[in-house]
Design brief:
11 helices; 2 domains; 10-stranded mixed β-sheet; alpha/beta; D-Maltodextrin-Binding Protein, domain 2; about 325 residues
């Protein structure tokens, strides 16, 4: 009887295993990190810093996949359609919150199609001119633009970028006219000012800082709330006479909506811990950013607030929706 009972239990084991399969630990294979911009830009730099550190901490390779085009919409659309299993993630800029106001038919919904993980880093924009322009301050520039209302144009990294929005905000706040000239990235936009293609540039600080430090470009103001750590001599827009003029660009980590909560929690914990490491902090600062390392709730709240504020600005400025 005793042996018969043992055999009965053993015979039942395969059925029990089928009913309650063991769950594999995440991650068990490589993770794809979609960056919806070309290699070499500020978002891509942050993605590669994070990917290298995450590969080590998770024990699986995190591969950066650049899917540029259409102001980031192509890559963000691909990320939105990916399986919500934690093996495809999105690292994008503020474009995820800006583009809904500028494009009629997006291939994604920035709120419904993504789960927020963390706002990783942020950096201000900077307004730059050539040193031989004779323009030394924002007040100088505004005075000239008012005296010559058809003479000025400004470069940005492209329509829909936060730098573009910054230029339009300056036009509204200062009551001046400027023609927007979009380029394919912050680097080309900064170079356009250097080459006298445009008189002014509104670009992410990381792309122009080297040219500013070397004296090839002059920074009129940064759009952070306080003076930037690496350019303490450059005033903010607030100091330049424009209260509450704060406009920064973030790099943030998202997963497709429906990604399991435990995976989101793990990625949040690991990414925030990575950003607290001294050598990572140094790499981020060299890239022209400050650490944020925010929570999922904070990122979700910021995205919704940005969407609303940009839509209002686009309406006021009369920016053409594509």
């Amino acid at each position: 009887m005793r042996w018969r009972g043992i055999f009965t239990v053993l015979a039942a084991l395969p059925a029990l295993c089928l009913c309650a399969p063991a769950q594999a630990a995440y991650p068990e294979r490589a993770i794809t990190l979609i960056v919806p911009f070309a290699p070499g830009g500020p978002t891509d730099i942050i993605a590669r810093i994070l990917a290298g550190a995450l590969s080590a901490s998770l024990g699986q390779q995190v591969v950066v996949d650049n899917r540029g085009g259409a102001a980031g919409n192509i890559g963000m659309g691909q990320a939105a359609r990916a399986a919500p299993d934690g093996y495809t993630l999105l690292l994008t800029s503020t474009a995820i919150a800006v583009n809904p106001a500028l494009f009629r038919n997006l291939p994604y919904d920035p709120v419904k199609d993504f789960t927020a993980i963390s706002e990783l880093v942020a950096a201000p924009n900077v307004l730059v001119v050539r040193p031989d322009s004779g323009i030394e301050t924002i007040a100088d520039f505004v005075a000239r633009a008012k005296a010559q209302p058809d003479a000025f144009n400004y470069a940005s990294p492209g329509a829909g970028t936060k730098s573009h929005i910054t230029g339009e905000l300056l036009k509204l706040r200062a009551g001046i006219a400027m023609v927007h000239v979009p380029f394919r990235g912050a680097g080309p936009a900064a170079q356009a000012v250097l080459a006298k293609t445009t008189q002014v540039g509104s670009v992410a600080l990381a792309a122009a800082e080297g040219l500013i430090q070397s004296g090839q470009l002059r920074a009129l103001a940064v759009t952070s709330a306080a003076r930037w750590f690496s350019l303490p001599q450059v005033p903010t827009m607030i100091e330049s006479g424009y209260p509450d003029f704060v406009s920064d660009t973030f790099s943030a980590l998202f997963a497709p909506a429906g990604t399991p909560a435990e995976i989101v929690a793990l990625l949040t914990r690991e990414s925030r811990a990575i950003l607290q490491r001294p050598h990572v902090r140094e790499l981020v600062r060299r890239a022209g950013f400050e650490i944020v390392a925010g929570s999922p709730a904070e990122l979700a709240k910021r995205v919704e607030a940005e969407i609303a504020s940009v839509r209002e600005l686009v309406t006021r400025a009369g920016i053409k929706v594509q």
